[in-house]
Design a protein that fits this description.
Elements lengths: L2 H6 L3 H19 L6 H8 L3 H7 L3 H23 L6 H17 L5 H9 L4 H29 L7 H19 L12 H16 L4
Helix pairs in contact: 2-3, 2-5, 3-4, 5-8, 6-8, 6-9, 6-10, 8-9, 9-10
């Protein structure tokens, strides 16, 4: 083997990232059940043994996909709770951010995949729920609590209200990535979100 070939060989970290990128694309395209480690190897242009060295199971590979692609977005959502401004403005900012992530044709495909395969892979779904869903909803609950404390929002149940805020956005995103593509009159996602937030924020605002 020449010195040049050694120099151009991907580092361990670079190879790991290539495998995560290949797996991410396949999971979105085929789903978790239909994606094999062999498929990831072919897509990445390596031997299956190379995949196994980095990720012994498909579950550990999927976990790495969530860490690489999804958890940074969750951390960004959590950071919005500490930004300056009113609770309603930050809540609006948070929902626009989450909505954008869910409607993304790539990242947004992961929740749809989880929902479709939750019955066959409950541990996979449980892990995703803990690492992504609970944290995202907690950020919304925190902003609602802040709004109640500042006198912007009525004394509602923050956790239940956060569900009422987020669930329609999740359903809309799943619809977009599935049956929505066959809708004869496509829904304008920006208008949908604006309307939802307008009704929601008026509903929890303190009456003057």
């Amino acid at each position: 083997m020449s010195d040049q070939s050694v120099k151009t060989r991907p580092s361990r970290e670079a190879r790991r990232e290539e495998l995560i990128e290949a797996a991410f694309a396949l999971f979105i395209e085929r789903g978790f059940a239909s994606t094999r480690l062999e498929d990831v190897a072919v897509s990445a242009g390596v031997a299956k043994g190379t995949v196994v060295v980095h990720f012994p199971t498909k579950e550990t590979l999927f976990s790495a996909v969530i860490t690489h692609y999804v958890e940074p977005s969750v951390a960004r959502a959590e950071a919005i709770t500490s930004e300056p401004g009113s609770a309603s403005d930050r809540l609006r900012h948070l929902l626009y951010f989450i909505h954008g992530q869910l409607c993304d044709p790539h990242i947004g495909g992961i929740p749809k995949m989880i929902v479709s395969e939750v019955g066959n892979f409950p541990e996979l779904a449980r892990s995703f729920h803990e690492r992504v869903c609970i944290r995202s909803r907690a950020a919304e609950s925190e902003l609602i609590r802040q709004g109640i404390a500042s006198g912007e929002f009525r004394a509602v149940d923050p956790d239940l209200t956060a569900r009422l805020l987020l669930d329609p956005i999740i359903m809309h995103a799943i619809w977009r990535h599935s049956l929505g593509r066959y809708d004869p009159v496509p829904v304008d996602s920006a208008a949908y979100l604006d309307n939802h937030l307008s009704i929601f924020l008026r509903g929890i605002a303190v009456e003057h």
